[in-house]
Design brief:
- By secondary structure, this protein is of the alpha/beta class.
- It has 2 domains: about 5-60; about 80-275, Vaccinia Virus protein VP39 (Rossmann fold, 3-Layer(aba) Sandwich).
- The chain is about 40% helix and about 20% strand.
- It contains 12 helices and 9 strands.
- The chain has helices spanning about 5-15, 20-30, 35-40, 45-60, 65-70, 90-100, 100-110, 120-130, 140-155, 195-200, 215-225, 245-250; strands at about 70-75, 75-80, 110-115, 135-140, 160-165, 175-180, 230-235, 255-260, 270-275.
- It has a 7-stranded mixed sheet with strand order 5-4-3-6-7-9-8, with helices on both faces. Strands 1-2 form a two-stranded antiparallel ribbon.
- Helix 6 (about 90-100) runs parallel beside helix 8.
- The protein is elongated and about 70 Å long.
- It binds glutamine (GLN).
- Glutamine binds next to loops.
Length: about 280
């Protein structure tokens, strides 16, 4: 069977999304999309078996990214699998905002702390684009850090360092000019409403933000002043409808809200805070 015919079969017979069918076929054949049409190669029976196995898994609602073992984030190839959250497109907005603020961050120092780093996608995308900065990615999950470390090698990023840790605990001093985080922010009671791909396969600990979804924002904002330099910035990805409460908490903790950026769906998605008021212990 030829590649294009196989795609047709996956879409027609198994109702696989056409784009996903294309991705499965290209991945197994190790070809780019354009080659499907220019070459339309013949598929061996081994290759067809692998494709069928992938489709079986997909029909059980396993995320395609886990099946293929990779996805793309900010032009980087990111390895993923059970135990690590799949990078979301919205999270690219956070990276965009950090890159836009590059000069401000450079002005206060050149060290960024990426909390709840997961696959390392945020840290690596920043590191790749700002080679003169040092980025530290922290996650409590050893599995996630293993993926992150592999992704560092895969993308040949030298200035990013991954550590297992509980939020700030691997660090002691006020050394960061910027903190980034996409923490778990789904309310515990709403996890069952997520689509099966997420709730049945992705790590619960990367999704569960506690009863009100805000546990990690409070922890991050409680600790941030101790680790952030004066005028340092915080970039947080936030969930739908969480902006007001997080804003209020940030103000209470002495941060200034610089901006809240919406995603393509019009949802307030990235909050940017500034450590403009130094406390007495600030250096
Ligand atoms: N955006 C994720 C979702 O699909 C949640 C990720 C997170 O909690 N940080 O719901």
């Amino acid at each position: 069977m030829k590649a294009l015919e196989k795609i047709k079969q996956l879409v027609g017979k198994f109702s696989i999304d056409p784009k996903e069918a294309q991705q499965i076929v290209c991945h197994v054949l190790k070809i780019e999309k354009v080659q499907l049409y220019t070459r339309n190669p013949e598929i061996t029976s081994d290759e067809e078996q692998t494709m069928n196995f992938f489709v079986e898994r997909r029909l059980k609602r396993e995320p395609l990214q886990y099946i293929l073992g990779e996805c793309f984030f900010y032009n980087l190839k990111i390895k993923v699998g059970p135990g690590v959250l799949i990078p979301r497109q919205e999270t690219e907005i956070l990276v965009d905002e950090v890159l836009k603020s590059k000069n401000l961050i450079a002005h206060t120092g050149q060290r960024i702390l990426d909390l709840c780093t997961g696959s390392g996608c945020i840290a690596l995308a920043i590191g790749k684009n700002i080679p003169e900065f040092q980025i530290f990615g922290i996650d409590i999950s050893e599995k996630a850090i293993k993926y992150a470390a592999e992704n560092k090698v895969l993308n040949n990023v030298k200035n990013v360092f991954f550590l297992v840790g509980d939020l700030f605990n691997p660090f002691k001093e006020k050394i960061f000019s910027c903190i980034t985080a996409n923490p778990p922010y789904v309310k515990t009671g709403q996890i069952h409403e997520l689509q099966p791909e997420i709730k049945n396969y992705e790590p619960l600990e990367a999704l569960n933000g506690g009863i009100d979804g805000l546990i990690f924002y409070r922890k991050i904002l409680d600790g941030a002043k101790k680790y952030l330099l004066k005028n340092g910035l915080i970039f947080l990805e936030i969930g739908a409808g969480q902006a007001d409460e997080i804003c209020a908490y940030a103000l209470m903790r002495g941060f200034e809200v610089s901006n809240v950026v919406k995603d393509l769906a019009g949802i307030q998605r990235v909050m940017i805070l500034k450590n403009s008021k130094a406390d007495e212990t600030q250096i």
